[in-house]
Each structure stands twice: as C-alpha cells, then as structure tokens.
Write a structure and sequence with these properties.
By secondary structure, this protein is mainly α. The chain is built from 13 helices and no strands. The protein starts with 6 loop residues before the first helix and ends with a helix.
Length: about 280
C-alpha cells in the first residue's frame, strides 16, 4: 500500500485507521467485531474493514476542499455535502448494499474538514470549525427525510446533526476517557471499551430509537452505565454486565451504531495528537 503523501491524504488515512480500530475493538456490545456481525447487520468484520477503506477517497477530497476554502463557508458546506453523499454511495456499494459506516461518513467527514480548515490545531480546538460547518445549511441536500432525522423529529433526540452542532461533545469526552484509562495503566483495548461505553451511556442514538423506541435506547444507556458502575470491562462484575448487555442487545436486534461512529471520531482525534507529536 502506498504511504499517504499530501496533508489531505494523511488526514484521510488517520480517519480510516480510526474507523478500522473502532470496528476491530472486541467485545463491543451489540456491534460487529471479532466475534461476528451485530444484530440487524449483514456485514462481518472483513466486510466492515473493506467498507471502512472505501471512505478514503471521499475523506481525502473532503480535506482538500476544506484546505482550499480555509474557513467554514456556505459554499464549503455544500461541497462537503456533495462529497459526503458520493462517499455514502461508495461505502454502501462496498458494504454490499448495507448502511455500514453511514454515521461515520458524517462524523469523520466533519472532523477531517475541521482539521483541514485549522491545520495544526489541537484536537480540542476542532469543535469550533466542526460546529460552524454543521450549523450551515446544505441547500443541495435531498429534501426527503432520513431515518435518523425522522426519529429525531419524533422523539426530540439530538441525533447525528445535533451532536455535530454541539461540537461533538461525545468524541471529546471519549478522548478524555481514553487518556484517563491509559494513565491508570489499563490496556489499550480496555481504554477504548471504556470510551465506547461512556458514549453509549449518554448518547441519544437514533439507531436504537428507530429499532426499539425509547425503551430500546434506555436499555442501551442503562446497560452501558451498569458496566462502568460495576468496575468496567476490566473487572469480573463489569465483564459479566458487558456480556449481559451484549446478549440483551442481540436478542432485541438493537445495534448502537452511532456510538461506534463517535468512538471512531474520538480515535481520529487521538491519532491527530500522535501525528502532531511526531511532527513536533
């Protein structure tokens, strides 16, 4: 594989690597991982990795467009929307017609654009440009409602757009959780699981809302909180609570895919820090 050379390719490579890391994390409750597909999913781990790689051209184009613009403008927002829709189509084809990584296209697309608009900015500083881009209207977007927007309107959930317009608080908190777990000496997989569970515990994920309504979302949030309160995935009680949550999600056919996409966002911010340290 050719090593990415330009700054846009470096950002795209970091984002795809972050998504692959999120996909490979095991055991993830109710999600595709090393054990196989999650509920309602037809994509196995190999397919999920392949589909993640299909984001690279779109994310590289996103970074290039953002670098040219140099600021969050309505014109850039519309260009990013067009790139995002093309990327969704490409990823859907790579995932054999499933919606695998659809949320990640939005999350990573905005974060990559923010990093390209503000080159050299610390990860915590990317909330501003990402929020500014998300707040702009894409006049070329299809008028038909998506599954996520319909659920957001019905239940008042923030959804993916609300998360972005708030400056991606969940990835930023997950990044802090990663740092804290590493400082405590936890293995990297445990640190990432803790970050994922922290997202699941509070995220108004429209996927579970669509599949199982408010009760399904509460099951996800309470189950994730229960794992952390039991000592986390590193403790015996936490591992048992994690197994129970995973079994319950699979039995109900509930897939908290929004949490995985936001974990990928946190891992992308983490990779940006590593890139900056190496560059410095």
């Amino acid at each position: 594989m050719t090593r990415p050379s330009g700054p846009g390719e470096v950002l795209a490579d970091a984002a795809v690597g972050a998504l692959v890391a999120a996909v490979e994390l095991t055991p993830k409750p109710g999600l595709t991982d090393g054990r196989g597909p999650g509920p309602g999913a037809r994509t196995d781990l190999v397919g999920a990795r392949w589909a993640a790689g299909a984001l690279f051209p779109g994310l590289a184009a996103t970074a290039a467009a953002a670098r040219r613009a140099g600021a969050a403008t309505p014109q850039l927002r519309e260009e990013l929307g067009a790139i995002g829709r093309c990327t969704e189509w490409t990823v859907r084809r790579a995932a054999c017609g499933t919606d695998t990584h659809r949320g990640a296209v939005w999350v990573l697309g905005l974060l990559v654009a923010a990093a390209a608009v503000e080159p050299g900015a610390a990860p915590c500083e990317l909330a501003g440009p990402a929020k500014a881009l998300a707040a702009l209207r894409d006049r070329r977007a299809p008028s038909r409602p998506s599954r996520g927007s319909s659920v957001s309107a019905r239940y008042g959930a923030a959804g993916a757009r609300g998360e972005a317009r708030a400056g991606f608080p969940h990835p930023r908190r997950a990044l802090e959780a990663l740092r804290a777990a590493r400082r405590q000496g936890h293995p990297e997989e445990t640190a990432r699981l803790r970050a994922l569970l922290g997202i699941m515990a509070t995220l108004q994920d429209t996927g579970p809302l669509y599949t199982a309504g408010p009760q399904g979302l509460r099951f996800v949030q309470r189950g994730a909180s229960g794992v952390l309160e039991a000592g986390g995935p590193e403790s015996a009680e936490g591992r048992e609570a994690l197994r129970s949550l995973d079994a319950g999600l699979r039995e109900r056919g509930v897939r908290p895919g929004g949490s995985e996409a936001l974990l990928a966002g946190a891992l992308f911010l983490d990779r940006l820090e590593s890139l900056e340290r190496r560059a410095g």
